[in-house]
Write a structure and sequence with these properties.
Blueprint (H helix, E strand, L loop, with lengths): L27 H12 L5 H13 L1 H12 L2 H7 L5 H16 L1
Helix pairs in contact: 1-2, 1-3, 1-5, 2-3
The chain binds zinc ion.
Amino acid sequence: MSGSTENPRHDGKDPEGVMSNPSRPVDCQQLVELLGEYVDNQLTAEQRVHVDYHMEQCAPCLAFLRQYKFAPQAVRDHLLQAVPVDLEDRLLSFLKKRTRG
Ligand SMILES: [Zn+2]
């Protein structure tokens, strides 16, 4: 009766961990990881829902998105220095990954 052979799917390629928890809203760190694709309109509809939902409840992220969205690339780099340390670290790693790819 107890099917102990069934394990949760950890097989899917989901480095952000966002889509693996569709019932949970994204947190600030996950939002940062999606930010670049969000402003480029490259997110799926579902991802956009999560981002929009987070923005409605998180003023700092909303403010940062607005700055980031309308800033040229050079200014974006400068913006990263204004975010909290934790976010900055995420943003830097995110942008590095993005520019390298
Ligand atoms: Zn936030």
